[in-house]
């Protein structure tokens, strides 16, 4: 009887360990994708800012200052839009990862429940047969 309990405990432990490894893999893949999105956005915005400031450094008169100020406003608007779009994409990746991990956990709990139910039913039959 103890051997059966130990075997079942080991099987359940292995099942949970497998689920945790899969969840960790999903979380790491999500983290990698989010980092990639953020770095891409950061790189794009730094490049746009450097281009703007390089052009602004060449301004020598009032007309040039007027033109560059309009470009500065446009840069700020574009940056805000890009950062918002990036945050929405990051949120989408986070939600998909959360859903996948939730489904994994649900499947693991359902599998454990089925295993325990089968074990209890088998034990009931074994004690009822005596």
Automatic annotation (TrEMBL):
It holds the Pfam family Phasin_2. Residues 11-106 form the Phasin domain. InterPro entries: Phasin (IPR018968). This is Phasin domain-containing protein.
């Amino acid at each position: 009887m103890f051997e059966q309990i130990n075997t079942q405990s080991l099987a359940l432990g292995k099942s949970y360990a497998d689920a945790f490894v899969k969840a960790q893999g999903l979380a790491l893949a999500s983290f990698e994708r989010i980092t990639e999105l953020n770095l891409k956005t950061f790189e794009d915005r730094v490049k746009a800012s450097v281009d703007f400031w390089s052009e602004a450094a060449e301004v020598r008169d009032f007309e040039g200052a007027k033109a560059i100020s309009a470009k500065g406003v446009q840069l700020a608007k574009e940056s805000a839009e890009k950062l918002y779009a990036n945050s929405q994409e990051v949120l989408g990746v986070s939600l998909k990862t959360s859903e996948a991990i939730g489904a994994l956990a649900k499947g693991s709990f359902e599998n454990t429940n089925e295993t325990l139910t089968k074990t209890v039913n088998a034990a009931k039959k074994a004690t009822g047969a005596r």
